[in-house]
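Page 37, top half.
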Amino acid sequence: MSDQKTAAIIGAGPAGLTAALELLRHSDIKPIVLEASADNGGISKTINYKDNRIDIGGHRFFSKSDQVMDWWQEILAIETPKDSNGAEIEIAYHNKRRKVAPKAATNKNRSPDDVMLVRQRVSRIFFGGKFYDYPISLSLNTVLNLGLLRTVKIGLSYIYASLFPIKDEKNLEQFFINRFGRELYGTFFRDYTEKVWGVPCTQITAEWGAQRIKGLSITKAIVHALKSIMPKRQSIAQKEIETSLIEQFLYPKFGPGQMWDRVADDILQFGGEIHYHCEVDRINHTDQSVSSIQFTNSQTGENHGLPCDFCISSMPIRNLVSSLNPPAPENIHTLSDGLVYRDFITVGLLVNRLKIRPKSPYEGDLISDNWIYIQEPQVKLGRLQIFNNWSPAMVADSNTVWLGLEYFCNEHDPFWSMSDEEIYILAVKELSLIQIIEEHDVLDHVIIKMPKAYPAYFGTYNELPAVSHFLDKIENLFLVGRNGMHKYNNQDHSMLTAMTAVQNIINGVTTKDNIWQINTEEEYHESK
């Protein structure tokens, strides 16, 4: 009988797979990953529909963490050392800048297609039938689109908010007003944010803004715009730039799922295990320690038990608490049941062409946006991805345009419960209504539903510390990732929580404080 210790890892998303590979690289602990779906990557997976690939939500690969930037390149090499202008790319590592030379990833079995591309971020807001820069800039185009009167009102409103900010920000509306003024908030932030979350901004905690919008403001956007016209050396890491202003990023040739499929390959090659279609039923714990996991294979109906020395969980906290045996106290159950998630539907739409065209004939037929924020109030559509512009390899036929129409909803609400055909018909009508496509140009479609895509910062979110404090007392249980911590982390932050959890396990550290501090440290966290 083997004396090797095992770690049960719940979830094969970025956090779970990172934890598994880190354990194999740095310890003798065997990771056994239990994944409820058939795929790697969680929300970062890539769906392949007739060789047209869908990125669920749009995943830019950049990080202010040298550790993460190095880690990614150990899995997938960067394809080219030059940007679109022919300038050599530099990446900031360990407080130094160095040029990126093409190199093979650590695993020599990689295909020549297992690479990351250097991409330019282009995203705009579509509002009132017009395009606006994102982030909003005080360009001539913006002024002309808004009109002089509204532009002046936005400026005066921002000055007023700067001189008389709302004290003690409690909700997202106050957060936005303090940084952009009431007029700009009402024009570009309120309706779109409420479309995404389904509740008024006054019901969402200001902490969401601090984590997602971070330090962006009109002043920083203007300063960034001025700097952008000055000659400079490029760095993919872009540590000095606010996350919302990032202009350059890495992207796997075949979408984010390519990264996580290669990580899964390494886990299996180095002796770990990954089991799919495994739904966790019960987490048995005694004396503040998880002893085993019971799960069911959803395809076969078979029940299994997995003894473990450690448990790393990226499953939603609500599900985790309800799985505990013995059960959590009633108040913890109540609070975890009150945690809210926002669900996500992507409509993949293959079309002959877009009705909208670049302004200049020298730019070709296709606009250059990675995605477009749709702020038209007459449609439910929230965001539009153009997968051709993420990577040409995402599209089977370069003569077509492959779109991702993103809808935000709640699981089991009327929209979620519509048939795929009904959702498709609505999506085509909406995109046609706002003059982005002609209905007769649609060639094919697919519908993808992703439950619990976004942990929400309302419901019982303010009581989350009570739940996390209870769970953290289980010494060999480590919560990681977006849903595992009910924290709207980026992909790199989810990875860092996993890396930190593994280091804690190796070093015998049972406190979880350093994991919860990820994405709140000074480099990522902006003053509220």
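Page 37, bottom half:
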Amino acid sequence: MHAGPDRLLADAAGIAHAADARLSAALDDLFVADQVRSTDRQRASMRLMLDGLVQEVEADLRAALVGRLGPAAPEVLGVGRVSIIRPVFDRAGVLRDRELVALLLARAEEHRICTALRHAADGTSDTSVSAEGFECGDPALDLALKRAESRRFDQSAAPRLAACDLPAELLHRLLWWSAAALRDHLNRTTGLSPDLRDDALAGAVLTRLAGHDEGLTLDAAAMRVALAMEPDRPELLDVLRSGRISLFAALLARQAGIDQPAAFLLLSQTRAGARSPFCCARSTCRSRPPRPCCCRWPRPMACRTRPSRR
């Protein structure tokens, strides 16, 4: 059986479009500087976290819709193995959000650093550094940080970005994008009343947003613990060796007088020359409190203590 001319033209158009897309991707990749190119591991981690995040948001909205619609809920909402939202997102390109990608990249970098520290620890016999020793003395703050840290990885130790760790504005966008995708699908595939559908979607999104507490995110919990700690403890590099990356970044930000994103960027740089800023911002030793930082990034080397001249 031979394909008709319309089918052949459609196939040719699809092949031409795919070839053009491959060419555009090859051009972009060819001229990306090596120092800013993401590694294969980073891209894999970011895709894994993005898939998990979208699945979590879709599952939450579906469950909320089923609860609100009751017997009127379409059966498609209960078929979790078939994604409704992700194909719409991919076609619309809404996931190309700079804030979202920045979070994914930071979490991928955190996972890379934790993995490297774990491998380094496996090769030594030093067991003197324990994550349990770095607490601020407030059980509620310590528990909140440990709960937030436990969300960084899934059961297989793969990196994870939970919806509750998103900034409020980003979660707001993601939820309403998801609601729009579900609304379009339900409008095309079901006979659900438009008013009933829209009320249920709006109620589900608003309830989820009302329950979101940006103060419970990992970065916020780490900064609260860092601010509550005594100024002469802990040793920054010991916190880093324990694998508590977010707490390390918060303590570094506090001691160096910079914000958390800048502290994390210093930590995640792989160039040897970029490591000196956070090394000189560390506390001088455990036996005495660190001197206050006398400057601001990007001139951290001036913070090094020098003997006074008489």
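Margin note: Residues 124-130, 271-278, 280-310 have pLDDT under 50 and may be disordered.
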